[in-house]
Amino acid sequence: MTRIRQFLRFSAAIFLAFLFCFFAPLQAGGQIYADESANYTTESFTIHTTVAKNHTMHVKETIVVDFGSHAHHGIYRYIPYSEKQYIVTNENAGDDPLNTSTESEYGSGYKVLRIGDEDKTVTGEHTYHISYDLVCYKDDSKINDYLSYDLFPTDWETSVGTVTSTLTLPKSMDWDDLEFYSGSYGAEDPISDYFTQTIDKENKTIILMGDNVPSGVGATVKADLPEGYWVDPPSRASSIKYLWMAITIIPAVAAVLWFKYGRDPQIVETVEFEPPEGMTPCEIGYIIDGSAENKDVLSMIMYYADRGYLSIEEKEEDHLVLIKKTEADPKDPKFSRYFYKHLFNSKKTKDLSNLPDSFGKIVENTKEKVKEQFAGDDQIYNKQANFCRGLTYVLFALMILIVSFVTGYYSYTTFLCIFLPIIVLLPSIFGLVMVNMTFDRRKSMTKAKIGIIRTIGIVLLVIGGGIFGSFIFAWVSAAAAIGCVAAYVIMVLCSVFMRSLTKHGAELMGKILGFRRFIETAEYDRLKALSDQDPEYFFHIMPYAYVMGMDKTWAKKFEEIQIGKPDWYDGYDSGMVYSSIWYSSLFHTYTHQMNSALIQSGGDTTGGGGFSGGGFSGGGFGGGGGGAW
């Protein structure tokens, strides 16, 4: 298990590093060296550090500098920090003005303390008092605790006349385990080359003294301590509770919303041989999937023909012309009368191969009027559920963002805060939209189309969830990964099923689904009998079958039933054999031509280890450098 996690962590780090090359500016790291042209002297540098039992270091520095006749605003100190190991906080400069920043020429790995007034300058000798805390986090080791501290900063800008540094520990230790280093950054010179050190065991204090210490020379002390030496040190592990809160509370909220708004009333599927009385195919198409689509509107052409409003003349192969026969019935739905009126625009004919650019706008307006028809008491789908469906997308993204930020904070990996939401949300949201669409339109799309879109959506969701779980497993724990994946799945399911019908909608849906099942399962004898009773029965039903994605199924069932030539059709080929397959082909010819016109007009076409921070001077906590400004 450990090897797997190490591999995943390594892979994640490589992957993030790769992304970093594209999305983040490369900053050249490097050591900051002393300014050889400093025009001031440092008389003394005194540091008193007291370490609390929880490994918080309280540092007080007294720096005496002599600017001579050269005017300066003050001094600055830059203190390196590592978010994984320790941070710098509670900075204070006594009575002197203090400006604190982490965005400077030294990069984000330093806390910069600028002491002095930019509007005033000083000359001669001046004493500065600085204090700050180093909050050291719990290390990863289960065997030892650690001490690593820069007793004197490596990169002070000038030589120092007198150096005094004390480090007082909270309790005794094996003082023989202490290791001291001195020299420039990266050096491991003996401490005696520049400093003398003594240990006041009674007061548990390490004392460092130095005279005429050159610029660029520092001192570090480090030691392995018994496990438990530091008592309750700060730990970022407590932040994981926010991860668990996010993956518990947010899915719970989504589940409550589904329970309250997303459940359908009971749908009773009735036996139907005809569409619900008085309903057009466009209305059936809207009710069955809750979306007004182009195909729903275009199905009205055959509906108008079947009603005797228009006829279709085929002048040559695939060249269709609509001929207006009569005005629409005033009792027809408003959207139907609007579409029929604007289809011809006061003309008697409409060439489908030469539709105007305005046709796209006509279809869009018709779809809006279809939606308006099912408002108020006639509402089909629960508006609160539709709102909650949208809310699940927001909650889904919020959960992933919170988990990513907590994981990045916990693992000290800032990349995760930026890139994990991107690489998880992009495939997840696209996948969720596709799965939701196929679920909503499962009764109006062909099985082949549903299969393709749903498969792509599920693959995207698996990719998003897989990345999500893998990163949490690698950087947090297996339990957290399982919890995150479970929450991910719950959010997906709540979103998919977060759509409900009103009671009125459920009643109509029961009839429509019963009618659809008849189209899907009707046997030859039943269809033959119905056709004998009504020779136009096949044509009556075809527009409705089309909006439910069942037109090919309906046509195939009539392959052995003579349907004859419809009254509203006039073809160029007198030898044409009229069959259900021919009619289906005619249907798709005109819808293809009209969809092409919609595209041209711009219309919508959517049918672990311990700390290893040292070993040389400048490698401990604190330290850094500074100078005058």
Total discrete domains = 3
The third-level CATH topology of the largest domain is Immunoglobulin-like
Task: State the major sheet.
Answer: 7 strands, mixed
Q: Residue share in helices?
A: 40-55%
Which whole number gives the mean pLDDT?
A: 83
User: Biggest sheet: strands side by side, in what order?
Assistant: 4-7-2-1-10-13-12
Range of strand content: 15-25%
CATH architecture of the largest domain: Sandwich
Q: What are the low-pLDDT stretches, counting only 5+ consecutive residues below 50?
A: 16-36, 104-108, 607-618
Count of DSSP E strands?
19
Which structural category do the helix and sheet elements fall into?
A: alpha+beta
CATH class of the largest domain: Mainly Beta
Shape: elongated
- Cα Rg: 39 Å
What's the total helix number?
A: 15
Ends distance:
54 Å
Write up this protein.
By secondary structure, this protein is α+β, with helices and mostly antiparallel strands. Helices cover 42% and strands 21% of the residues. The chain folds into three domains: 41-235, Sandwich (Immunoglobulin-like); 237-263 and 383-497, no CATH class; 281-380 and 528-594, no CATH class. A seven-stranded mixed sheet has the order 4-7-2-1-10-13-12, with no helix packed on it. A five-stranded mixed sheet has the order 5-6-3-19-9, with no helix packed on it. The radius of gyration is 39 Å and the shape is elongated. The model is unreliable at 16-36, 104-108 and 607-618 (pLDDT under 50). Residues 272-443, 446-558 form the Predicted membrane protein YciQ-like C-terminal domain. The chain crosses the membrane at residues 242-259, 391-412, 418-439, 451-473, 479-501.
